[in-house]
Amino acid sequence: MDKRPERVSDEILGELTALRESQRSVILATVDSAGYPEASYAPYVCDERDAFYILVSQLACHTRNLEANCKASLLFIEPEDSTRQIFARRRLTYRCEGEPIARDTPQWVAQLAVMQRRFGAVVDQLGRLADFRLFRLVPLEGRYVRGFGQAFQWRRAKHAGWIPIGADDRR
Length: 171
Description:
The protein is an alpha+beta fold. It has one domain: Pnp Oxidase, Chain A, CATH 2.30.110. Helices cover 24% and strands 40% of the residues. It is built from four helices and eight strands. A hairpin with a 3-residue loop joins β7 (150-157) and β8. It is globular. The chain starts with 9 loop residues before the first helix and ends in a 7-residue tail after the last strand.
């Protein structure tokens, strides 16, 4: 009997990838030092392992929050003018752990090049400013809601990719 965990279906992965890739920025939730949530947004790029990279100013609250506690939630949501039912917008969320990427490292250079291809010359200018930081946000869990009663949750498994979880499985 095969004991490998079931994987997230190709259909669901295709849908959530299309939603994610239809947007050039992500809604970002972080927590400040007093424990209050902070909502903002940031342009992003995603690598082949589903890690997200954001280039953000240290003047922004979310950057200071990430420097103090590198946990975040990311939200991709269907635009209001595209939805048929405002109460059932398609949405994708990730619970992430992050890490700052040091300047002038191969990873900094590579990800800024990817960002520059996606967003243009402004990335080169921002990357030269001393207050800008690059963060890598790695999803630990995800949730895709495609409508009423259609929610799919999964977590990252070490050797199995993304595997579905039930509501009582959340850690």
